[in-house]
Amino acid sequence: MTGRIPLLVGGADDVRTQMILVAAHAAEVDVKTEAPKSAAAPELQFSDKKITYTGAILRFFGRFHESSEVYGSSFYESAEVDSWLDWALMELAEPPVRLEQAAQTLEKHLEQRVFLVGQRLTLADIAASLPLQRFQQQGLVQLGRATKRWLGTCLATEAACSVLSSAPPKGKAAAAATAAPSVAPVAAVAGATPMSSTPLLDRYSSCVGGRTEIKRIMLADGDGKSMVGQKVSVCGWVKTAREVVIDSGAKGFDSLKGKCSTGASMKCTGEVVASPGGKQAVEILVKDAGSEVVLFGGVDAKEYPLAKKGHSHEYLRSIAHLRPRSNLIGSVARVRAALAQATHEFFRSNNFLYVHTPLITAADCEGAGEMFQVTTMMAEAEKDGKPLPMANGKFDYTKDFFQKPAFLTVSGQLSVENYCCSLSKVYTFGPTFRAENSHTSRHLAEFWMIEPELAFADIVDDMNCAEDYLKYCVRYAMEHNRQDLEFFDDKIEKGLVKRLENLLAEPFARVTYTEAIDILLKESPTAKFQVPVEWGMDLGSEHERHLAEKVFKKPTIVYNYPKDIKAFYMRLNEDNKTVAAMDVLAPAIGEVIGGSQREERLDVLDRRITEMGLEPKDYWWYRDLRRFGSVPHSGFGLGFERLIMLTTGVENIRDVIPYPRYPGHAEF
């Protein structure tokens, strides 16, 4: 070959070729490809030399750019990558010999990790995930929850998607008949286990002499049976589940009398034994020598607000400082944390940059004026016993802290757009505020928003990203929080798990606003909507849910809305009546995502700002983006609490946020 771009000679359906191409993409190295003339291991060719071993080719791309972190971000991480790379090329080679043992090694290592090494995709992940996916598709291996989550994360990265989306499908029989044996590097050692494993003990529990989390025991092999006979120490608060059994002869038992009711905190040291009950496989027996119980904090059962009986969701809100101890809020908290983690993993794996946008702003993103004002004038006037400063019959904001009207942000979008128009793909994830005097189960005064912005992207790209993100989060929860979702399925929404599986099963429906109105008009006689349907209206929850639940029976994206019901920054379509806006509607929820292609034409933007009754001068910095190197760009916003409601089936938004803020309620 000639030129400086290397040529990769390898079969498109060869997993080794796919590994190399993903590594090249992740390392941002251009490579040409050519099919081999005969079955052989992939080979990287240059004008005067060639590299023949898969491991060597992967390392070549890993070292191509000094700034690349695909080989690890430190000397130690690079050593870890080498260890896992050698292990994967040996243990996951075709035909697999110790596949079940390899899967167990990965599951143990990934239990509390996102990637095999460090905080991002490396050669280690690439070398292990692609062959493992092939074996899973062939039905040769069953993967644990942690490994499934990791595999989904790896395959969702931009590097993997760009290669695998164009790779030809390969069936089970075909794979067995044509797969060539992998070439393992000389340094690989048969049966070797890579560096590091997750310790059983919580490393930050020296205060109590070390402890093991109960969930770690329950998630061990055989639902904990593999730990039978081991001595462990657990700490926590007393509930009604039979996970720890304390014998009356155990050391420290007398200290529990009259104090060990629901809510008490203690440490129990005992032996893991098989449980005689049917609800769980094992329990901890505190009985013999070496076993003991230590009471940290007792509880008077008569005063404890969370008795064993069930409590209404409304009552739990009144004791928000204790409600995390309830099964409902505990499960919500775990799913909320998982979805936040999934959010960052999705955007980071797709090369988005996380930007912190300000909470205090002088701009009204939505143009609705429902904002909380930030001022120090009232406190100063009250302190000095003087009236508020006035000028021409209005408050004199030049005397205020910011010397102009300032508010809590309703959206980080306008701020994050600035970074989008410099750094290409960005997102913000933080609290936002709306001063809406609303008492519905769907609105809060303070809530969290995820808002990505994509440069060089139109409304179609925006819809694709929104669908991919939503599916990624739901899949993450399904794999990482299955027990919590089964609890919600049993106690909150029957059929929840099936609904989530359906969400992942096929592409979302897509329909224009005008088409949606036509459908709703035809459905009106039988649907009997409370609000009559007409073109130009803002779709209500009943209309949104009807489209998603009754018409399409799956998540539905409605796009190209009338300009008069949308914000000034949304791109005006050629018809001058609609804007390139879209909403993602989900069954049981309604709108969960709203987004648009942004208006990149300065003259049109100015006209839209004026039409909305806003002052162009207040958005001078936003207008500058259109004056200096304007580009097509798009973005969307997702209310994080709406995502949690969709994933858990919880119907009231006040129950999916730790401390809900709504009219008349700002306690805790």
UniProtKB/TrEMBL annotation:
Keyword Nucleotide-binding tagged: yes
Stored SUPFAM superfamilies: Class II aaRS and biotin synthetases, GST C-terminal domain-like, Nucleic acid-binding proteins
Record flagged with keyword Signal: no
Keywords, sorted A to Z: Aminoacyl-tRNA synthetase, ATP-binding, Ligase, Nucleotide-binding, Protein biosynthesis
Domain spans labelled Aminoacyl-transfer RNA synthetases class-II family profile: 334-658
Pfam assignment, any one: tRNA-synt_2
Catalytic activity, EC: 6.1.1.22
GO cellular component, one term: mitochondrion
Entries under Gene3D superfamilies matching the protein: 1.20.1050.130, Bira Bifunctional Protein, Domain 2
One Gene Ontology MF term: asparagine-tRNA ligase activity
EC top class named in words: ligase
UniProt-listed InterPro entries: Aa-tRNA-synt_II, aa-tRNA-synth_II, aa-tRNA-synth_II/BPL/LPL, Asn-tRNA-ligase, Asp/Asn-tRNA-synth_IIb, Glutathione-S-Trfase_C_sf, GST_C, NA-bd_OB-fold
Family the UniProt entry places it in: Belongs to the class-II aminoacyl-tRNA synthetase family.
NCBIfam families associated with the record: asnS, PRK03932.1
HAMAP family from the UniProt entry: Asn_tRNA_synth
Record-given protein name: asparagine--tRNA ligase
Source species: Effrenium voratum
Taxonomic path: Eukaryota, Sar, Alveolata, Dinophyceae, Suessiales
